[in-house]
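Entry details:
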Amino acid sequence: MSGWDEGAIYYSDQAQSLGGDGSGGTGDSSASASHHSVLQKFKEFLRNFGADKNVFPYRESLKSNSKYLIVDLEDLHAFDADLPAKLRSAPADYLPLFENAAGQVLASLKTKEPGNEGQLEEPIPEDVQILLTSKEDPVSMRSLGAQYISKLVKVAGITIAASRVKAKATYVIVMCKNCKNVQRVPCRPGLGGAIVPRSCSHIPQPGEEPCPLDPWVVVPEKSKYVDQQTLKLQENPEDVPTGELPRNMLLSVDRHLVQTIVPGTRLTIMGIYSIYQAANSSTSHKGAVAVRQPYIRVVGIEEANEANSRGPTDFTQQEIADFKSFAANPDAYKNICSKIAPSIFGHDDVKKAVACLLFGGSRKNLPDGVKLRGDINVLLLGDPSTAKSQFLKFVEKTAPVAVYTSGKGSSAAGLTASVIRDTSSREFYLEGGAMVLADGGVVCIDEFDKMRPEDRVAIHEAMEQQTISIAKAGITTVLNSRTSVLAAANPPSGRYDDLKTAQDNIDLQTTILSRFDLIFIVKDVRNQGQDKIIASHIIKVHASADASIGDNRSSEEDNWLKRYIQYCRTNVHPRLSEPATTLLQNNYVNIRQDMRNQANDTGESAAIPITVRQLEAIVRLSEALAKMKLSHVATEENVQEALRLFKVATMDAARSGINQQINLTTQMANEVKW
């Protein structure tokens, strides 16, 4: 019994054995036994799931990719109903067991390679990251409260910021300064730190100096690290209640999920709702020791598909059959246009243009790395009260991804991207603006003419190259903004003035005008017959606004249109046929010749330039018209309709103004103004 009294501290595990029957560590041993049985169940699931169909998906994916494994909770539930319940209630306890089981299964699979005896070379179990997915509905970010702490949650949103990658220790090797005793201290996962003991466990020999308090020094080169990154997830714009600011949540991703997400991506994440002690909270909340900040430790990411669509991306066989039968109808184009803003009377060509904008052309990647945009930009310019903003609101509601912004309330940084300094880490990070958040969708900009010129210049690159380049505060990067732009503007005098030239009415630079595929001049024509029809239509809309049955049907139709647009954008990428290209080429040359003749006659160039961009615009319109009918080839008929739209929109706008009716001298123009 020598050394019994030599200064060491002994304690009993009474707190852990309270659940037992009075015998020492019963609680502890039963917990370890249950953990062992769960580990065996996890191993059995990975090895044998799908045995009834003679398909082993998890074994095969482990063999092909030994770094991480994506596990569906529905499969786990089908195998054993207890395991998902355990994972949901205590993920921090059972997920490491699952990863341990995956490592052991992978090691056992590797021994079965031909030529190995099994016992001769036992491979060391590798670290396998388990990523969970589930088909359940995501929880709202606002409803996450204290009852969800340490539970598994599923949340949807948009990433607005991503930090740099850091190295996070999984365990730290510490060494005593006095006696050189080495100890291994495990670190908590996520944003938690390591709890280092205050004193050294070494028992000093007689005559030896005892170790002081806090004697430890970290030995970084012997510790083990994994990559870690923090993201900021913001609520989806459509989930934010009216008048509220969108909430955001801190996410922590590690290992193979690092650097897979860029700002502006729509995500649905599975994670463990956790808490951490914020670095600056001790200074701001004096004495608030028990207050912790929430964050989510991500254990699975589902990214929205390429079309960045909301809602489920998989279509049922019934839906696909409905879409195909609808597209086979010769009147499919007319039917789609009738579904665009049905509450707005007239404006048939604008509705057709908005339909083309929603479906979009085909994005092309050339062999030399040049990317040609497939998105269509439309400008509505004209009098007040001609339903321009209503079109914008309709598109915001119908497009799979849309952001609505007003010209006066938008700055260059708010539309593109801003560099913000993090308060806790003092490092700069990027936050994407409206053009980045609407990647794969539509940006609706109202009051386009009220924007400051320097802010309008900021979206030039986004409208043609479909990227946003940033070089600020040491951050040099390129963000994607593959968006269509639907803009509404008023002429400088508020109303469209027929006595002015086109240049005076369209007070926008040619650089921005050439980036719009279609430019509509919407006039409020005073015509008694038409006024009567419009008045009766508007009164009818107001009278039948409360009919709940029609309302229900219209919301279903909106949803159907959104799904159809989503399906077309994802699955159909048309190209021009040979005869269509010849027709388009000849027409483009004729249009350029007409504009040249017009400039010679009037003595001044057109307000809207007709350039190669306009040729590409007609190509995109033809592809969008083919896409509406689920056709993979844009025919001559599509090109004819695209040319007609182009002529009634951009060509009419270019030819508008008093100079086209009569040749005014400067003196005559001044007399007219008086």
